[in-house]
Design goal:
The protein is built from 12 helices and 8 strands. With about 300 residues, the protein is α/β, with parallel strands linked by helices. The chain folds into 2 domains: about 90 residues, lambda repressor-like DNA-binding domains (434 Repressor (Amino-terminal Domain)), CATH 1.10.260.40; about 200 residues, Endonuclease, Chain A, CATH 3.30.870.
Length: about 300
């Protein structure tokens, strides 16, 4: 799926809505039932069921409970997970936050609102320092680099607004409750820092400082770790409740972004992240790597 928000008349499809709708479709299919059966139990039209399954409309708790009962869901954990996802989606659709004052977020608008609602994120980055960990100087130097092309969502943004939005996002790491972040950076990210030596030192110092936060785990994947599929591009596994239960994945490459809304794709990315993390330097050795690299500058 695209990171854009598709439109259908006056309705807006959301990532979480599509994630929830996909789960309901899977449950309905496993039960051998049709949209007609779902519409009947909800005393509604097939059109409404279609909109629900495609994430066009926010879902009501009574509707979710009725569908779970119809589909033979016996595990209260499954029903509870769907209800929690629906709650977060409803709140996200109504949410007003700092991002509403930034007019040039583009396709990042959806990501930022989900990042704000998330409880935890697993971030793999083979090319750049993750946005949640960037210093203002790093952002400016990166955007000024002659060989750097900004991701689609970031092009034409005024530098001041873009930097301010990055700093606003980073408040999630120190808010109450804070976002739990597990980030793994490829060694190349740290050896190819843009800008001056002062900018590079400042970024390395900032990474070491943030890594000391109790809710942040930072790992370095060394060149000696070998090849893996994650080198194709960065991705974030975003969790909203119990990790793995209702995850979505934001995948970014040089010229495109896309969402992976649950299913085998999300599971595969979560497993890939864990493989990368297992082959990375542990927290202590990662901090030592940052320290030694800074001494070399």
């Amino acid at each position: 799926m695209s990171a854009n928000q598709p439109m259908n008349g006056n309705s807006t499809s959301s990532v979480l809505g599509r994630r929830l709708g996909g789960e309901l479709v899977k449950l309905r299919t496993m039960a051998g039932l049709t949209q007609t059966h779902a519409a009947k139990v909800l005393t509604s039209s097939i059109t409404k069921v279609t909109k629900m399954e495609r994430g066009w409309v926010p879902m009501r708790d009574p509707d979710i409970r009725a569908l779970c009962e119809l589909y033979g869901v016996r595990d209260p954990g499954v029903t509870g997970g769907l209800l929690e996802l629906a709650r977060i989606d409803r709140e996200r659709r109504k949410a007003k936050g700092w991002w509403d004052t930034y007019t040039k977020l583009g396709t990042m608008q959806e990501y930022v609102t989900l990042e704000n609602a998330a409880t935890s994120i697993k971030a793999w980055q083979p090319g750049f320092v993750p946005g949640l960990l960037q210093t203002p100087a790093y952002v400016g130097a990166l955007r000024d680099a002659p060989t750097y092309t900004a991701p689609v969502a970031q092009r034409r943004d005024p530098d001041e607004e873009f930097i301010a939005s990055r700093l606003a996002r980073q408040q999630r790491l120190t808010e109450d409750p804070p976002l739990i972040l597990r980030a793994v950076l490829y060694e190349a990210v740290l050896r190819n820092l843009p800008g001056s030596t002062e900018t590079a030192r400042g970024q390395l110092d900032h990474l070491a400082k943030v890594a000391d936060l109790p809710n942040v785990t930072l790992g370095v994947f060394p060149f000696s770790g070998g090849l893996h599929q994650g080198l194709n591009g960065s991705f974030n596994v975003i969790s909203f409740a119990e990790p793995g239960a209702m995850d979505v994945v934001y995948y970014e490459s040089a010229f495109s972004e896309r969402w992976i809304e649950g299913g085998e794709g999300a599971t595969a990315h979560d497993q890939l992240f864990e493989l990368i993390a297992d082959r990375s330097l542990n927290e202590r050795d990662s901090q030592l790597f940052l320290h030694n690299l800074r001494k070399e500058l």
